[in-house]
Amino acid sequence: MKTSDLTTPALIADSKILETNIATMASKRPGRELRPHVKAFKSTAMAKKLVDAGHETFCCATIRELEGMVKAGFGSDLLLANETLDAKRIGELLVEGNCRITVAVDSLETIDAAVFAGVKEVLIDVNVGLQRCGCSPDEAGFLSEKAKASGLKVRGVMGYEGHLMHDPNVRRRTEKTQESMELLILAHEAVGGDVISGGGTGTWECNQAVTELQAGSYVLMDGDYSKLDLPFKEGLLLLTTVISTSKSGYAVLDGGLKALSVDSGNPKLLGEGEVIFCSDEHTTITNGSWTVGQRVGLRPSHIDPTIAKHEFIYLVEEIEESLDAELLETLKIDLRGW
């Protein structure tokens, strides 16, 4: 079966790039020094490839991801790097499954929810500048003591410098990351524990403060991350078909907002022309020589929400310009939802 046999829109990925990206990260962040973030690819089949590369701990953003990873046998050390007030399902996993789950907390309310659900271990989530979740650094010690008094084991701290991930200025990104991590280290001194968790694909090299890096997008990359000075290559493509050229100078593809995310910008066209705009089920591009029925590839600008829109990723040995490659493997995207 070839990519030309697929119904479009469909996600295809270059297996050589995938393998190289995984190996590159593993060479610098081996084993437990990397806690791959499942939210990027939402697939236990992809997680298996990371296990094969030597990684045994994983980071999740949703309880659905936790459930799927435990069911697949990858629950030896999972972190829910997100706050939740409805932790009942986590407690059920801990009772039913042979797993270890740590939950991020940043308030008395999230601590109480963890205790009520039967969670045993937590990380204190610290705001290091993103202005999303996380307590202030000077509150971390207080919350840690409250958690311990409630019977929880506090493994350490986490803090995500997401506001710095896509800064194109290497020097500024490095300096600002160090400043953010100083806040996390300060919090860790008050909290204790052996875990300092954080970072991501954009700060994979300059963040030397964490004991474990939370990166996921690096496996297949996207248009936004590819603007940076990273050694990882883009390996994901949305395969589409030209369905109309009725308006002179334009071509319309059969994949749009329901097949890819544009929160980080329009996708990049593989080949001649440029993307004009995306609508629900269509993408309009400038037409040089595109013809109805021709296959066209689009590089997503943001991998995580794009993958979450699909059921499968089709692996090929190499994405060729002809877009007519043999299919090697189908990865089920089985961790979608909440």
List keywords for this structure.
alpha/beta, Lyase, Ornithine Decarboxylase, Chain A, domain 1, TIM Barrel, seven-stranded parallel β-sheet, 338 residues
What does this structure look like?
The protein is an alpha/beta fold and 338 residues long. It folds into 2 domains: 3-11 and 231-332, Lyase, Ornithine Decarboxylase, Chain A, domain 1 (Beta Barrel), CATH 2.40.37; 30-214, TIM Barrel (Alpha-Beta Barrel). The protein is built from 8 helices and 16 strands. Strands 1, 9, 10, 11, 12, 13, 14, 15 and 16 form a 9-stranded mixed β-sheet that branches. Strands 2-3-4-5-6-7-8 form a 7-stranded parallel β-sheet, with helices on one face. Helix 4 (88-96) runs parallel beside helix 5 (108-117). The longest helix has 22 residues, at 170-191.
Question: Short description, anyone?
Answer:
The protein is α/β, with parallel strands linked by helices. It contains eight helices and 16 strands. The chain is elongated, with a radius of gyration of 21 Å.
Strand and helix map with partners:
Elements: E1 10-14, H1 15-28, H2 44-52, E2 58-60, H3 63-71, E3 78-80, H4 88-96, E4 101-105, H5 108-117, E5 121-125, H6 140-149, E6 153-159, H7 170-191, E7 195-198, E8 212-213, E9 236-244, E10 250-253, E11 268-270, E12 275-278, E13 283-286, E14 295-299, H8 303-307, E15 312-316, E16 327-332
Parallel strand pairs: 1-15, 2-3, 3-4, 4-5, 5-6, 6-7, 7-8
Antiparallel strand pairs: 1-9, 9-10, 9-14, 10-13, 11-14, 12-13, 15-16
Helix pairs in contact: 4-5, 6-7
